Sequence to fold (434 residues):
Amino acid sequence: MLRLEEKIKDKSATIGIVGLGYVGLPLAVAFAMARFKVLGFDTQQKRADLVNQGKSYIADVSSDSLSSVVTRKLLEATTDQSRLGEVDAICVCVPTPLTTTKDPDLSYVIQESRAISKYLQPGQLVVLESTTYPGTTKQVVLPSLESSGFRCGIDFYLAYSPERVDPGSKDHNVRNTPKIVGGIDPRSTQLAQLLYSQIAGTVLPVSCPEVAEMTKVFENVFRSVNIALVNELAHLCEKMGVSVWEVIDAAATKPFGYMPFYPGPGIGGHCIPLDPYYLANKAREFDFHTRFIELAAEINEHMPYHIVFRIIEALNTRGKSLNGAKILVLGVAYKKDVEDTRESPALKIIQLLGAKGAEVSYNDPHVAKVQLLHDTFMSVALTEECLSSADCVVIATDHSNYDYPYILSKASLVFDTRGATRGLKQANIVRLGE
Ligand SMILES: NC(=O)c1ccc[n+]([C@@H]2O[C@H](COP(=O)([O-])OP(=O)(O)OC[C@H]3O[C@@H](n4cnc5c(N)ncnc54)[C@H](O)[C@@H]3O)[C@@H](O)[C@H]2O)c1
Fold:
């Protein structure tokens, strides 16, 4: 029987991808395109069926590329976890959400570790990709897998390798984004490095899983803190009558020591609003308070409230009140050009506006309907009538295919939370950070 190393090198290894979502599906397709046989696992039958029909439900994966690997029998999906025993390497990409009290919810990782342990085969490599706090691979996954009676580094191999996908990005993908790998032991690191080097241009081994886990959360904390900093600056600029957008553009001309971040209505998606809490929570075990993380979260989570306050002010200046006003929100995805609404600040804004008596509708070319508490909202067509009848049009997400000059020409008042209209000087624009 060939060893895993040879099987990866000659591409006879079968790769199991657990969790076929925003992270897992692109990864599965990347391995299949590198001519590995891939078996994808998901608990949702509908997702497994769609994959097997070559129909993509993730914007970053085209149905063309998915069906091309499915028809060549390089990718198959299943909900049957007992088939974990058929694969040589397993990449785990299950969700790592927060509980309602913002504590890490590792239930998906724990449940999957138990399933893998049940079907573990000698020589298998298991890699956790889900974002989590430092220590998860060693303290949570390892004991679960070793409860099978197999020993890590001898009978099976275990590593952590964070996913760094940038949903919606045309520039960055699994292939051109360096991959970090940290194994429980040197052999696990070596095998994980070999595996990912089949699909990624650069694979950087680090000394242990904790370094890889900390690297991922640090990257997201870095974004959260810098976004909070520029959101705070936006508040100050409003008070001082300075345009934060002009300041950022000017600062960005400095060729060293500066990197632009932009203010907005808050943070969304499955990473930036959640991952810092994983680290903050773990830090408390060490009597350590991560003040930057808490402060950034406080500032960023306050942004939807600030936006609603500014909308109230803008309506008030025009002799109108928010109660009874018709508000059209443009964009409910958490960032431009994606269809993902998880943790989207636009949803919080819609909720807050509705609670104050506004009549809220939305348009999003990427999101046909959205569930908010007990209500289902459907995207309305962006007609002249719908723009001109709104008391305020709120640009919550700056999708590229919005025609901003057209929107401004039809709406009586536009509140721009993203700087999408910067450079335009019409009197009907009110912007965050100005
Ligand atoms: N979305 C991103 O941009 C991004 C980027 C980097 C890292 N991550 C991290 O990657 C992980 C996955 O995120 P995602 O956005 O892909 O989530 P997702 O919700 O899009 O996909 C997760 C999938 O896992 C499936 N699933 C849940 N439990 C399962 C189980 N036991 N077995 C098989 N399938 C199971 C779900 O049905 C779902 O299809 C998270 O830890 C996240 O923090 C996400």
Remarks:
- The two ends are 67 Å apart (CA to CA).
- The mean pLDDT is 96.
- The CA atoms of residues 26 and 61 lie 6 Å apart.
